[in-house]
Design a protein that fits this description.
The chain has 7 helices and 3 strands; from the N terminus they run ααβαβααβαα. Helix content is 40%, strand content 8%. Strands 1-2-3 form a 3-stranded parallel sheet.
Length: 184
């Protein structure tokens, strides 16, 4: 699930700008509305990404996921955010609602390079930490499943010279994906 107004595919100003993004991530109840657009099962796992774990939308989604019996995995700067006050009326941070927390270890200000004669640092780290942690998780799970003999449906590269089966493997993976999305 990607809620475009809450992604960084936004404009800086104007429609879907930074001010709207900041407002929406803090609106309690918005996460409940997002959840209504999908079908979930207690066998599903909800992965949530939040640098600080204090904003309402992700907390709404975590609470609803738990109500549905889903496991909740949260990626974020858990140690750096410890003690930060939740904005949600439940009083809990996203990290407190998780079954599993993956600490990104990114600094709280989410920047890495201090600038001479300037108060703000530049060079955000949280997105890089999230991407790294997700791919480490996915590759580890893939290894475990493959070792158990589970058939994996992977999108292969189409740029390997001499690989004559990539197209067929992609078609097979997409067919399985469509079957699962359709709920068959």
């Amino acid at each position: 699930m990607i809620e475009l107004p809450l992604s960084f595919f936004t404009h800086i100003v104007g429609d879907m700008g930074v001010h709207q993004f900041i407002f929406l991530e803090r609106v309690e109840g918005y996460g409940d509305q997002i959840m209504k657009g999908y079908e979930f099962d207690s066998r599903d796992t909800m992965w949530l990404f939040s640098h600080t774990g204090i904003n309402n939308v992700n907390i709404d989604i975590a609470l609803r996921s738990r109500e549905l019996g889903m496991k909740v995995i949260v990626f974020g700067s858990a140690a750096e955010s410890k003690g930060k006050q939740s904005r949600h009326s439940c009083g809990k941070s996203l990290f407190e609602l998780a079954d599993i927390v993956v600490d990104s270890c990114a600094p709280l200000e989410d920047a890495s390079v201090p600038l001479k004669n300037h108060i703000d640092k530049v060079g955000p780290l949280s997105t890089h930490a999230f991407v790294t942690a997700v791919w480490m998780t996915i590759t580890t799970v893939a290894e475990i499943l493959a070792d158990r003999g589970v058939k994996l449906h992977i999108h292969p590269s189409h740029n390997v010279p001499g690989d004559t089966t990539a197209h067929d493997r992609l078609d097979e993976a997409l067919k399985e994906y469509k079957r699962r999305v359709a709920g068959v």
